[in-house]
Specification:
This protein is of the alpha/beta class. The protein has 13 helices and 7 strands. The longest helix has 19 residues. The radius of gyration is 19 Å and the shape is globular.
């Protein structure tokens, strides 16, 4: 059960009750946090309740991290929170490679020169490196367009990181996946519920914001209006869960389709930004892939 924003989830007044409840059901809580509020005591609470934590680390340079976070001083607070998680034991897996701690960092022109250093830091500290590519939506689309990487830049750093993993850490992985060293198949099995109760396939696939999917001016797939079971079985979300069968371009013809369907959120955002119908945008070729 992934506990993620809009906004910082640890700010939620009933956050600890939520984590304890998920744990009591025998389900692993996975918390996405910027770690700004991650005290030693909170880190210990999460560790004791079998949580995994995805923190934040876009850069070792304070000025870069602060800029990407959108707030001065964020870098220092983020690093303190990460240290508290390390002290709580999150970097000491019970079994090799069964990691409980990750950091999310978004590759872009500002941190491109640090990627290898951050990768080594993660591998050496048993941290899952959740390296994503800047998606053209929200603030990234409004303010960070000039920070987007070109396809050749993405290809170069992914192949270099694969070489590092093969040489030093004993990992081998498909370099074409949207998250470096990890595929993302969220559209095939998960649902994302935002703060208003609107349901999406994943966070950047903002179906609820598109006028074409509204009925009488409102997005119907909301847990306050429709049961999650009914939303899951609806025509729209049945289409989404079977998106791998209708993918276009090189995504549709790819021999690796069982482990990679491209980034559907990225494809959707690019399509919508270019005026494509939402259902068509969902199945577009992923432009991140350099295969």
């Amino acid at each position: 059960m992934i506990v993620i924003g809009g906004g910082e989830p640890t700010l939620y007044p009933n956050f600890r009750d939520l984590i304890a409840y998920i744990d009591s059901l025998g389900i692993i809580p996975v918390v996405f946090s910027n770690t700004v509020l991650m005290t030693g005591e909170l880190a210990g609470f999460l560790y004791e309740h079998n949580a995994s934590v995805m923190g934040k680390l876009d850069s070792f340079k304070p000025e870069v991290q602060d800029y990407l976070a959108g707030r001065e001083g964020a870098s220092e607070e983020i690093r303190k929170g990460l240290k508290n998680l390390l002290k709580a034991g999150f970097s000491k897996p019970v079994e090799p490679r069964e990691l409980r701690l990750g950091v999310s960092f978004v590759s872009n022109k500002m941190n491109l020169g640090e990627i290898e250093e951050i990768w080594h830091f993660c591998r050496q500290n048993n941290i899952f490196p959740n390296m994503e590519i800047l998606t053209p939506t929200g603030r990234a689309n409004d303010e960070l367009q000039d920070k987007l990487l070109m396809a050749d830049e993405i290809k170069e750093y992914k192949l270099k990181l694969l070489e590092i993993d093969q040489k030093y850490y004993g990992y081998d992985w498909l370099p074409y996946t949207p998250i470096t060293a990890s595929g993302c198949l969220q559209h095939l099995y998960s649902l994302y519920i935002n703060i208003e109760g609107n349901v999406r396939p994943c966070a950047p696939t903002k179906l609820d914001e598109h006028p074409a999917l509204r009925v009488d001016g409102e997005y119907p797939y909301n847990i306050n209006k429709m049961s999650l079971r009914k939303i899951y079985g609806s025509d729209l979300f049945t289409y989404v869960r079977n998106i791998d069968k209708v993918l276009e371009g090189k995504c549709g013809n790819c021999e690796y389709i069982e482990e990679c369907i491209g980034c559907r959120g990225y494809a959707y955002s690019v399509g919508i930004n270019n005026g494509v119908d939402p259902l068509e945008a969902l199945k577009m070729e992923c432009q991140q892939c350099f295969k």
